[in-house]
Amino acid sequence: MLGLDKKDWTLLLIVAVLALAAPFILNPFPAGSELAQFNAGYPDLMQRFAIFGIFAIGFNILFGLTGYLSFGHAAFLGVGSYSAVWMFKLLSMNVVPAILLSMVVAALFSLLIGFVSLRRSGIYFSILTLAFAQMSFNLAYSVLTPITNGETGLQLTLDDPRILGASATADGSIPVTNLFGLEMRSTFELEIGAWLFQFNAGYYLCAVIMLLAFYAAMRIFRSPFGIMLRAVKSNQQRMTYTGLNPRPYTLAAFVISGMYAGLAGGLMASMDPLAGAERMQWTASGEVVLMTILGGAGTLLGPVLGAGFIKYFENIFSKINDNVLHGWFSFLPDGLEDLLVSIVHPFVGKGWHLTLGILFMLVVIFLPGGLIEGGQRIVRLFRKKKAPRGEDADHHPKETPHVAE
Amino acid sequence: MSNSKFTRRGVLKTGAVTGAGLALPTIFTASSASAFTNEPTGASVTLGFNVPQTGPYADEGADELRAYELAVEHLNGGGDGGMMNTFSSKALQGNGILGKKVEYVTGDTQTKSDAARASAKSMIEKDGAIMITGGSSSGVAVAVQGLCQEAGVIFMAGLTHSNDTTGKDKKANGFRHFFNAYMSGAALAPVLAKMYGNDRKAYHLTADYTWGWTQEESIVAATEALGWTTVNTVKTPLAQTDFSAYITPILQTDADVLVLNHYGGNMVNSLTNAVQFGLRDRIVNGKQFEIVVPLYSRLMARGAGENVKGIFGSTNWHWSLQDAGSQAFVKSFGTKYGFPPSQAAHTCYVQTLLYADAVERAGSFNPCAVAEALEGYDFDGLGNGPTHYRAADHQCFKDVLVVRGKENPTSEFDLLEVVEVTPRAQVEYAPDHPMFAGGSLGTCNPGA
Amino acid sequence: MDAILLQILNGLDKGSAYALIALGLTLIFGTLGVVNFAHGALFMIGAFCAVTLSKFLTLSFETVDPTKTDFLGQPLKVKTPYVEAWFGPDFGGALIDWAVPLSILFAIPVMITVGFVMERGLIKHFYKRPHADQILVTFGLAIVLQEIIKQVYGANPIPTPAPDAFRGSFDFGVLLGFDPSVIIYPYWRLVYFLFAAVIIGAVFAFLQFTTFGMVVRAGMADRETVGLLGINIDRRFTIMFGIAAAVAGLAGVMYTPINSPNYHMGMDFLVLSFVVVVVGGMGSLPGAVAAGFLLGILESFASMNEIKSLIPGIDQIIIYLVAIVILLTRPRGLMGRKGVMED
After folding, report:
1. Are C278 and A69 an interchain contact pair (Cβ–Cβ within 8 Å)?
2. Does the structure show a pLDDT above 60 at B400?
3. Does some domain include residue A387?
4. For B61, which of B51, B197, B376, C27 could close a Cys bridge (C-beta 3.0–4.6 Å)?
5. Chain C residues close to B306, C-beta within 8 Å
6. Residues of C with Cβ-Cβ distance to A236 under 8 angstroms
């Protein structure tokens, strides 16, 4: 059905259940407990999980299938955000036109950059994309300020025209983004016992779009087009000899993944109508590379996992301060408590970068296939006896992605 | 330590568990459930301290955080009370805010507007913060201020110097205690004219983004009004680390003053490079060549080492001030941490106290009531002399310090000496001044 | 004319920093086939060798000076460095003054050790892994290294001035017949340029004229054949990694008086040095050096007011623009070989 076989259906269903039940799954700890610090089930972070999931899925279509490592994908996300915010400023606060425009603009932009960059391969391609993205960032931060509002980021103001909407609401505030009247920030709160769950309209929009994006990626992976892209990765020369020109295929993959990035950017602006230039910086491009490889490049689920992993760290670990640590260890005698706090201290709060760096290294060293491989190893442990090794190739990247070799 | 962390929701929940233990659906859309966003209902209230903990401004962020922790301690009745004793308002009792114990959560802005907003949102959505404060750059301050306006909480800006924060990007829920680029110009220019004469030729190097531009505009206007001419204004990329290529062209001009509209790492590098190229040994038009750094950060200036000696600039506050408020603050900060506070620490401490005081006076945490209590408020005893929170743009007006790099520092903290305390009247401007025009406060948003 | 001369000087100076970092980067790539994202961190560690030594030399004991007070109104504690107390203020003071040049001696063994440990402990296991894994693991390492430095030394820059003798600037203008103080250049930047030239020359000479270098070059060209000849190429490559680390570290040590070092200086240089290496051609040593100087000089010219007024914002993008143009006209950079880092 819908062009998927049974195995894919199972995967899609699992992802759908995970995404829709995220407010429950991500809030395992009662709200008042010390461990509530680790809860991730609040709207902003859940939205980020979904949005960066989309971004990473799209990046994986290019990198995972063709092996072309782009170091400039953040530029498309940034361009998408800018176009969405401009749409809110000029047209209306409905997110649909904004998201559509962000995809179109990102597609055009990636067509341009892809057309030039794909003339080279390997690391030369990577550096070309990096150069384009850094140029976009530097210009957006300075010279293009009339369009991008530079350092402060493009924001909505009370005197924006908004042709199809109001410049300001009746009580004099800036209107909020909505989907045909459903406000993106409206949240339904559910209390069950000591637990508090938040169901946010914006998150569910992101989640549904992410599922669509995931489904589309699945179809691309399974299609003849996807096989063609894999051929580009495994042996471009042989492909050329058989009379096929790989360029149109790689360019199509580049534009598709650019559109995914634009979609992510548009969604980001729809959830929070601001677009800042830092979204286009090379570190942001590097982040999506890390997400994809960390999760497992070339797999369907890996990039989403990687995105969640990094965003969780950025938002949860950075908020653990000494005060919180003392709270955790307060049951211990004072001397021991202080000792433990001073041991943990360098790795959380302002040290979250350090922990992330160490975890990167550990994952890369011990799990060459990313987090997905870690999961598979655990699964294999449990059904050691049966299960010959012939699982789905996509979930079992024996041939690790040969980037730029 | 035994101060375990109870969030507002935590207390709320424990009450709910014992009572019902079943689903209580409530819809948190506009105007339902509570009167305003994150209304504290338990025995404590949560404030959100959003400072850079990673990235180039991490040390300033750390100092801001120290000040916040000190402020919370004082509000809860701990320590020696610091500036609460010298504050002209006596509403604060040392029993928290409105009798509720003050709790806080911290976050990392990374000095990026996206990360700062994500962090602020998690404080509002997850931790139930009723007020957000912090930041060490104008980009972040403006971005978070916009978010707080939307979410319906109060934003007490930390270190932000751009005119825009209370100019074209001002918001009804946002308040700034720190001074701004216009005030730097208004305070600095007369001192410069007095020291260097009225016929100087200035050459500006300016960080190429909004803060740099507003500061350049302010300094150019203020100095030209006193007879200076501006030879050239050159923009430098933010990511620049070596400024030699921007400094050597100055040698070809007849400029005799270099104004560095740079902050943080940019300032350290451009100043170091300018001194390396012997600019301070130059004689042009028979005058000694001079360098000016309009906005000083003492923490960062340490990175420039000896190069800051004799260089003029302005700051919001300095620990060597002798008024009772500043002394009390330096004493309690220095006793706790072992070194004097920075201007960023001062402004953050003061903002926390001002917020708490406004809540006490308003008798409510409702952002609109708090905003009303802060608007047009006159106070004293928090350093900087008598201060006024202007209702029209939520900018504080107070004395501004003109400082100079000290020739013979006695310690590693003793970097700047106060040359002049510019009286408040001299740095005031009309709310519709062209440099601040555009934008409007809008109306206060209590959220929920 | 004088303006152009000055910008060429600026470019040579900036270029020598680029060239030194790119040289080590391309050396590692050429010998080991590893894309090392932690190379910027090695530059940073070198700079912090200088910081560490000057901190060490200024280790002080405190005496109380009752005539002065500190910020809390208590008697001021005056710090006297131990070295001044031991060797007298003259020699001790000179030691502190010359901390940066002295750090070279300190940095060489430190950097070689760091290089060996990195190669044997981590990089070795990644020879057979895809480049993406190498990038990720070295990037992780770079983050870890810079965070450790941040936790020890803080995030703010730390001043490490050049010795007094090098602090002034040199008047080129007079030498060339221009007016005095029109073309002046700081002594330390001249020192940096000469230092870079010596290091680059030494590396080339080492590879060109020693047996060791010959074997390494052979290994770079065809690793397998050299291995088949019974030569232990791996051990030599480890040594080359140590040398590349030392080159990056020394570039960092000497850079500290130009700009006060901070923990993220390595990342600041990382992207640029990669662009330099690629523009020069992956694995080409002369290419890296040439591209370093080329980009340095072009960047300096782009920041001239005359050019900026023609094309606004050109100084923001010049490096990337040049990289794009070169890569589109010369597929493998200035001097790259076919088949390296393609596919």
Report:
1. no
2. yes
3. no
4. B51
5. 159, 161
6. 343
Are the Cβ atoms of A128 and C331 closer than 8 angstroms?
no
State the complex-level ipTM. 0.89
The pTM for the full model equals 0.90
- Does residue B189 sit in the same domain as residue B157? no
Q: How far is C304 from chain B (nearest CA, A)?
A: 7
**Closest CA of chain A from C237, distance in Å:** 19
**Structural domain that includes position B74:** 8-179+320-393
Residue B306 touches chain C, beta carbons under 8 Å: yes
B124 within some domain: yes
Pairing of strands B131-134, B44-51: parallel
Domain match, B22 and B139 both: yes
Same structural domain, B175 and B232: no
The pLDDT tens digits for B88-144 are 999 998 999 999 999 999 999 988 888 899 999 999 988 899 999 998 888 899 999
Q: With an 8 Å Cβ cutoff, is C68 touching chain B?
A: yes
A102 domain residue, yes or no: yes
Domain ranges of chain C: 2-329
Instruction: Tell me the C-alpha distance between B191 and B403, whole Å.
Output: 10
Instruction: List all residues 6 or more positions away from B291 whose beta carbon is below 8 Å from its beta carbon.
Output: B257, B258, B259, B260, B271, B274, B275, B279, B280, B311
CA distance C71 to chain A (A): 27
| CATH at residue B130 | 3.40.50.2300
Q: How many CB pairs under 8 A join A and C?
A: 135
- Best probe of the B interface among C303, C305, C320, by most B CBs < 10 A, is C303
Q: How far is CA A285 from the centre of its chain?
A: 11
Domain that holds residue A116: 6-27+39-282
Q: Are residues B35 and B125 in the same domain?
A: yes
Is A315 domain-assigned?
A: no
Considering the domain architecture, whether residues B311 and B359 belong to the same structural domain is answered as: no
B105 touches chain A (CB under 8 A): yes
Nearest to A403 among C122, C130, C333 (CB): C130
Q: Do B276 and C169 touch (CB under 8 A)?
A: yes
Say if A367 falls within a structural domain.
Answer: no
Return all residues near C262 (Cβ < 8 A) that are at least 6 apart.
B56, B265, B303, C155, C156, C157, C158
